[in-house]
Amino acid sequence: MKIGKKSEARAKRLVEFLMERIAAEEERFSLWDRALSILESLRFNRKVRAFSLTRSIPLPEKTEFFQRVFQNNGISLPEEASGVFLSVLILEDLWDALPYCRSQLQKRFFDETGQVEVSIESAQALPEGEKKKAEQLLSEKLGNLKVRANWTINPELIAGLVIQAGTHVWDGSLKGRLNQMQGELLDRA
Q1: Could you give the CA distance from residue 163 to residue 59 in angstroms, rounded to a whole number?
Q2: Number of structural domains, the chain?
Q3: Do 182 and 164 share a structural domain?
Q4: In this structure, are 107 and 119 located in the same domain?
Q5: What is the pLDDT of residues 80-107, one digit of tens each?
Q6: 84 and 154, same structural domain?
Q7: What's the average model confidence in pLDDT over 25-44?
Q8: Do 118 and 164 meet the contact criterion of CB atoms below 8 Å apart?
């Protein structure tokens, strides 16, 4: 979903506000990233949107409600910072800008801390030692950036891994190799 220039400018200021509070602290980043993820999942909930936009409900009551949502999900944010963030989100109606805020926050944090987020699919669950080894090799290939791996299992791969970092995809799966061989054989026919 696209957001307008005005919303984008406001969202950038929110991201800047969050980056000032997070600095380069992994734990703070993880908390805010989870909080934004929760808010992002609520943005299409009509009751939540109506609650946040209803002018007859005082702003402090609204911010307290969302802080309770965070607490119920095990997220403990500094009350002052979360209050400011939630107030701006509600008053400026930046619900549609939440995905943009979250992606920009991740990008800024990863750039400032020398990290890269990758998705890794494996055909079966791998032992932690194997995962760490794969992440270390990948880190070396990516210029020694810290790898933040999101592991998923996809039995259709048969064996091997499929790794995606940004727009780059490395397919080392048996399914990928079989598809490649099939394509080569069809080209020769």
Answers
A1: 44
A2: 2
A3: yes
A4: no
A5: 999 999 999 999 999 999 999 999 999 9
A6: no
A7: 95
A8: yes
Query: Are 90 and 122 part of one and the same domain?
Result: no
> Which pLDDT belongs to residue 165?
87
Q: What is the largest CA-CA distance in the chain?
A: 72
Domain that holds residue 54: 5-111
- The C-alpha angle 39, 100, 71, rounded to 5 degrees, equals 20
**Which segments of 23-127 does DSSP mark as H helices, in order?**
26-42, 46-53, 59-72, 79-91, 98-113
Give the rounded distance of the alpha carbon of 104 from its chain centre: 10
Distance CA 65, CA 87 (A): 12
Burial class (CB in 10 A: 0-12, 13-18, 19+), 99: middle
pTM for this predicted structure = 0.76
The one-letter amino acid code at 176 reads G
Q: How far apart are the C-alpha atoms of 92 and 34, rounded to whole Å?
A: 21
Separation in Å, CA 64 to CA 40, 57, 58, 97, 139: 18, 12, 10, 21, 41
